[in-house]
Amino acid sequence: MTKTLALVGCGSEKRDEPTEAKSLYTSTYFAKKRQWAEGCHAWRILSAEHGVVHPTTVLEPYDTAMTDLSDTEAADWGTEVIDDLRPQITGFDEVVILAGHDYVTPIHDDLHELVSTVRWPFQGKRLFEQVEWLKHNSPPDQSTIGSFE
């Protein structure tokens, strides 16, 4: 059985108070990505402000987006994300990235050095195509729902 880690891009729509990261982002789009990711062995959120975030980490609302970062800041963000993921990714066979280009570009090449398979099903897809993909593709393994790290 393939052990999959999903990386989910955060969202701009957020609650007004400190909330667990998995519930902080309020868009339907984030909810669909979260639902898909929860069918994997584990999942993490990619945040422009916080890097790699465990879904149960409580966060204050924030307004930073990847598009706010300069090229240098995005590269530094990518280095920090890879450094944070390195110990978390041990034992996973694949990483599936459910995020946009701005989140993937700074980490994509380095992820390939950490895990044998990196999938980015949203590559080249517009938002409605990403939503359709989520609707029509089951997570790699549904047997782990409810048993997250």
Quick gist of this model?
The chain contains 6 helices and 7 strands; from the N terminus they run E-E-H-H-E-E-E-H-E-H-H-E-H. By secondary structure, it is of the alpha/beta class.
Question: Which keywords apply here?
Answer:
single chain, about 150 residues, alpha/beta, Rossmann fold, 5-stranded mixed beta sheet, two-stranded antiparallel sheet, 7 strands, about 35% helix, about 20% strand, globular, disordered C terminus
Overview of the structural elements:
This is DUF6884 domain-containing protein. It holds the Pfam family DUF6884. The protein is of the alpha/beta class and 149 residues long. The chain has one domain (4-139): Rossmann fold. It has six helices and seven strands. The strands form two sheets. It has a five-stranded mixed beta sheet with strand order 4-3-1-6-7, with helices on both faces. It has a two-stranded antiparallel ribbon with strand order 2-5. The chain is globular, with a radius of gyration of 14 Å.
Morphology call = globular
Q: Tell me the distance between the termini.
A: 18 Å
Structural class category: alpha/beta
CATH topology: Rossmann fold
The total strand number stands at: 7
Domains counted in the coordinates: how many? 1
Assembly context of the chains: single chain
* Helix and strand sequence: EEHHEEEHEHHEH
Radius of gyration: 14 Å
What would CATH call the architecture? 3-Layer(aba) Sandwich
Strand content: 15-25%
Pfam families: DUF6884
InterPro entries: DUF6884
Protein name: DUF6884 domain-containing protein
